[in-house]
Structure formats: C-alpha cells, structure tokens
Amino acid sequence: MPATTALRRTLAALAALPLLTLAACGYGSQAKDDDTAQVAAGAEKTDGLDSVRIGYFGNITHATALVGRQKGFFQKELGGTKATYATFNAGPSEIEALNSGSIDIGWIGPSPAINGYTKSGGKNLRIIGGSASGGVKLVVNPEKIRSAKDIKGKRIATPQLGNTQDVAFLNWVAEQGWKVDAQSGRGDVTVVRSDNKVTPDAYKSGSLDGAWVPEPTASRLVAEGGKVLLDEADLWPDKKFVITNIIVSQKFLKEHPKAVEAVLRASVDANEWITDHPDEAKAAANKQLAADTGKALPAGVLDPAWESIRLTDDPLAATLDAQAAHAVKAGLLDKPDLRGIYDLTLLNKVRKAKGEPAVDDAGLGIG
C-alpha cells in the first residue's frame, strides 16, 4: 500500500474517533429553553415549521450566532417558528448532527465544512453565508521564542489533527522550509494536538512553547504571559480569511427556503447591529457564552479576542479554496472538487434588499 494512501486511511480513522465519542453523547449540548426571545403569541410559522434547529460553537469566533441568539434576532425573523439551539465543541460532531437531521443550520469552520462536503460526495451541505474572519494567532513563550526562526525545534500546539488551525500551521511550517510529518506531528517542529480548553494550562506548565490557536484561546495564552508572534490575518490578502461559515442541510434548504432566508436575514441584521453597537454586542456575546459554557470570559481575555475578530456576511470563498489547497499540500486531504459547495442565492437576496452588493462564490457555487 502506498505510504500516502496508508496515511490518509489512518487520518480518516483518527478523525472518526472524536466523532464517535461525541455522537455517543448526543452530538451537541442542547440549549435550555430559557431564551429571552420567545415565540410571539399568534405569530405565523415560517414555512409551516414548528422549529428551526441552529448549531454553533461556544466560541467568540461564532459571535454572530451568540449575539443573534442572545438578542433575539433569529426568533424575530422566524416569527411563529421556534428557534432552538445546540452547541458543539468540534466540527465533526456538528457535521454529524447536520447529516442526521439533529440540526438544520450551523455555524462552523472551513475545514469541517470542506471535509463534510467532500466525504458525502457533495450531497450533504451547502455553505450559504459567511460569519467571521480572523481571530487566529501564533502565541509563544517569549523567553524561548523571539522570532519565527526560533520556532524550529519547539513544541507548538494546534487544536486538532487536520482542523483549520492545524492545516494553517503545517502550511506555514512548510513555507519556512521545515519538514513535519502531518500524522505524527514530528519533525523540525513538534506539533502537539491539544484541546483548546487544556492548552493554556499545558502552556503554563511549560509542556508547550506556543500555540497556533483561535480566539479566545490566544488571548488566554497572552494572559498567561505568552506573546503574539504572528497574527494569521497578516498572511492573507487584505488581511481577510474565513474562520466561520454558515452551512445548511441541502434537504432543508430545498424544502424550507423561507426558513433559511429568515435565518440569513437575522444573521445579516446581527452583524450590522454588532458593528453599530460594539460594546453592547461584546457584552451580549459574553452573556451567551456564560449561559452555554457556564463561565463568562474575563475582560482581559474578552477585549483583545473581540478586537481581533472581523464579522462579515461574505464567506470569503477564495480563501476557503486556498485552505483546501493547503490541506492537500500537507497530505491531509485528497484534491477535492468543491464545485457546488456554495449557494449564496438567498444571502445575496437579503443583501440586495438592504442595498448591499452581492458577494462572490469564487466559482464554487451551484449551477
């Protein structure tokens, strides 16, 4: 068996492990029915639906969903249809929930969206909008690492084998001319796959020299004495790259386009409100995080994390295509056919109604 084939089969098996574990726990945490926004008495149901099930991560890079829920944007647009929620800790579990029908629409990172789409032969999901750009940093121990060249020989964490930040770091390492085996993480740099929840403690103990991680983990590391060596935004044109997309089940999109449009309208409205009310929006996101995770972020972590995120309706499709190419180069993905992964029809309809220009699918749309 060729080495590359064996590697990919091993990676596929590894990728399935967290999926199976989380699936056994019911995919995601079902939200308590304690939202401020309740269905208005006598309100008309959208597409005749009793509910629309929305998934997202309890993470500041999912600020649109956090604020949209906390401030009632989703419920307002869905009218007599109840917005229900599930929170997730990992992309594979959210994709499985979408596939099983446990959720209808979700906020998710680019790598899980790519993997979910390609593994189903392009039959399970569509990306229907963008949500956030940026919010990923390389934070290091300043006593051990003072410049990029000092990364060689060090132990650097990423959140998960093959996840969005793991792919980005492996690509950056390759661009430095260093070699790392993607599967084991061994080479000129040691890549340690570490859950974002434990990475700050691992850094504090000295077992890690740094981490390539999203917010708010990056700001947690800075609070522990770390220093930002690199903001990933600086590696991208116009400092923009997708960190969070909105996906939907193709079946749900076909059968309930009015409900999908309502959620997209709420998302666009939420992003607009966040831009116009940054301090109030930050507080709302943190309040929802506290409800979802049991703990609000302290100001010293929340403030810098919030500043590094750029909310956007644009899915920044060209950067998703580039991220897929990076995964192929790292040996984590066979060259994918991403044609049809986007359907921005409803998003552009919503934007047109607001007098906003259409966003582009980089040639990866339907039809």
UniProtKB/TrEMBL annotation:
<keyword id="KW-0732">Signal</keyword>
<comment type="similarity">
    <text>Belongs to the bacterial solute-binding protein SsuA/TauA family.</text>
</comment>
<feature type="signal peptide">
    <location>
        <begin position="1"/>
        <end position="23"/>
    </location>
</feature>
<dbReference type="InterPro" id="IPR044527">
    <property type="entry name" value="NrtA/CpmA_ABC-bd_dom"/>
</dbReference>
<dbReference type="Pfam" id="PF13379">
    <property type="entry name" value="NMT1_2"/>
</dbReference>
<dbReference type="GO" id="GO:0005886">
    <property type="term" value="C:plasma membrane"/>
</dbReference>
<keyword id="KW-0813">Transport</keyword>
<dbReference type="GO" id="GO:0042626">
    <property type="term" value="F:ATPase-coupled transmembrane transporter activity"/>
</dbReference>
<dbReference type="InterPro" id="IPR010067">
    <property type="entry name" value="ABC_SsuA_sub-bd"/>
</dbReference>
<keyword id="KW-1003">Cell membrane</keyword>
<keyword id="KW-0997">Cell inner membrane</keyword>
<dbReference type="GO" id="GO:0042597">
    <property type="term" value="C:periplasmic space"/>
</dbReference>
<keyword id="KW-0472">Membrane</keyword>
<protein>
    <submittedName>
        <fullName>Aliphatic sulfonate ABC transporter substrate-binding protein</fullName>
    </submittedName>
</protein>
